[in-house]
Amino acid sequence: xxxxxxxxxxxxxxxxxxxxxxxxxxxxGSFCSALAExxxxxxxxxxxVVRQLKLSEMQFDPILRDGYDQSQNLEPDLLEAQxxxxxxxxxxxxxxxxxxxxxxxxxxxFDRTFLPGFxxxxxxxSQLWDKLLTGRTADLLVTMDTPAWYFRxxxxxxxxxxxxxxxxxxxxxxxxxxxxxxxxRPSNETQRQAxxxxxxxxxxxx
Length: 206
Description:
- By secondary structure, the protein is α/β, with parallel strands linked by helices.
- The protein has a single domain (3-204), classed as Rossmann fold (3-Layer(aba) Sandwich).
- The protein has 7 helices and 7 strands, in the order H-E-H-E-H-E-H-E-E-E-H-H-E-H.
- It has helices spanning 3-7, 31-45, 76-87, 104-113, 148-153, 158-168, 189-204; strands at 18-23, 49-54, 90-96, 120-122, 129-131, 137-143, 174-181.
- The radius of gyration is 17 Å and the shape is globular.
């Protein structure tokens, strides 16, 4: 559930963009949370309307039990997430890379939420499909313990390709910026403060 939905607040919407930030980590109090808040501060400072979905606080089954063979009723938090995605012009995903991929909770969120008829639609007797979320853009803020150069050249950046191409791109969402913050584990306070300033500037530059 979004912060605003829980508080009942309805921000005034002017000329700023409608931004939905999805915090895709199950770990409370992580550096991803700090990055999300910094980005939000930067965006709101420029007059944009920012709503947040924190997956760790949402109640839903992350497992798509029968694929698309049978319908699986959406929990209220996922129905709200779909409404927020439709509302948004710009999406922001903040998450860590674990084992070279996105966290299971974030993958489960996509499995359960980005459904046929909502995010995409296959055409009858065709290998082509309609991208139902076309027109939206996205920023990705990603933390890793692996150095960025090693993740790209040795591992082939599998999590980045999955997000930008086979999930967001498949549904018509164009990734504008992918910011990597790594390596996290050996970083010091000075480095982390610099990263938070970068996240704030990314929000201000939407």
